[in-house]
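Could you help me review a protein record that somebody else here produced? My question to you is simply how this chain folds and whether the tokens agree. Thanks in advance; the entry in question is below:
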Amino acid sequence: MAEQPLEAHFTETVSLPDGRKVRVSAYPDGSIRFRVDGLPYVLTEAYLSGNPEKDQAIMKISPGKQGSNAAYNYVDELAQKNAT
């Protein structure tokens, strides 16, 4: 029998100024899940072992072609959207 996925014991949704939403969920096993609305994203920065002095991990994702060939450039798309 397949193991059932864990249910999040904490979920928070943040609305960004441009209307996108970021949802952060924390699970009993210590894992954290991020869900971001919008275009495809690419991981452009990751310090997952963290800073030992600050006990932090940092992750940065970028939309569009900022650092990759993913879809198209979100900045250009946003400018076109705001021009109409």
Summary: The chain has a mean pLDDT of 79.
